[in-house]
Specification:
The protein is mainly alpha-helical and 354 residues long. The protein has helices at 11-17, 37-50, 62-65, 72-89, 106-117, 120-124, 127-133, 142-156, 170-186, 234-243, 255-259, 262-275, 279-286, 291-317, 320-349; strands at 24-29, 55-60, 97-100, 162-165, 197-200. It has 15 helices and five strands.
Length: 354
Amino acid sequence: MPDAGRAASNPHIDAYIARGLKGRILSGVQPTGNLHLGNYLGAIRNFVRLQADYDCLFCVVDQHAITQWQDPKELASQTREIAAAFLASGLDAKKNIIFNQSMVPAHAQLAWVFNCVARVGWMNRMTQFKEKAGKDRENASLGLYAYPALMAADILIYKATHVPVGEDQKQHLELTRDIAIKFNNDFGASGFFPVTEPLIFGAATRVMSLRDGTKKMSKSDPSDYSRINLTDDSDAIAQKIRKAKTDPQPMPETEADAAKRPEADNLLGIYAALADRDRADVLREFAGQQFSTFKNALTELAVARIGPVGAEMQRLVKDPGYVDSVLRDGAERANALAKPILDEVYRIVGFLKP
């Protein structure tokens, strides 16, 4: 399990260590539909592992989702689907807090304070806005531009000490740290907000398309055969792996050889991640063998690992009342944690109580 090293005692973390935990985790997933293998290996599976060692909150970030227009009915359905994926993957709704962001008003309330702490220059450096807005930035929503401040609020409204992040979110976590430090300094509130530490999982955070090993696996790809959806049944998983693009050569024999062959490299990485094995170890096992032999082994492994998750997701999605009850319970517990922190922020800033 990765853990961020600490050069000196940190009171925010020390309080959890006294309880036998490493700290508090906050992480979220946008409800934009079609969760796939990349989401599972890059994020959700890691959440399940973190729950043993951290005080955890897992959020369906529906407010982030609407920075780009969403169909309201689909947004509600997809929020339940993400919650179902959390539960189906093994997150314990009693041990952890599972909720959707919009049910906890303190996220948006703290985000406004952070909008006034963060600097425009900081936001201008955020590369994800440039990527998502594209060439027509003038028509992008203000929410898309400012959402890193909301992400900071998501984390700091619970004084989370750690956040699991992929490479594409490291910049936003650095902004969160800058906002925490500036708030503490601006208002003479030394140590009020923690300087949140990253937990970075290197393995398989970038699962590539099954049709093009140079492109990231994506729900927006028009070909359903480019990805393994978490809701795919065993037959669909097997068919997609059999049809996955490869080259005519046998399996690579060295890491250097694999790096030159993106489709082979991608399938190798997927196998290693699903099996919880080192890539080099998997490479030694299959080096020089026919791709058909490797694909058969990968199919068997993927069906065993992903099939049960998809089946449980399908069952839960058909029971929206239960999923909604989990989200309501989580929101109630999240609100109880967030309210005293927001109250103290308002006191520090100088807002009068009603």
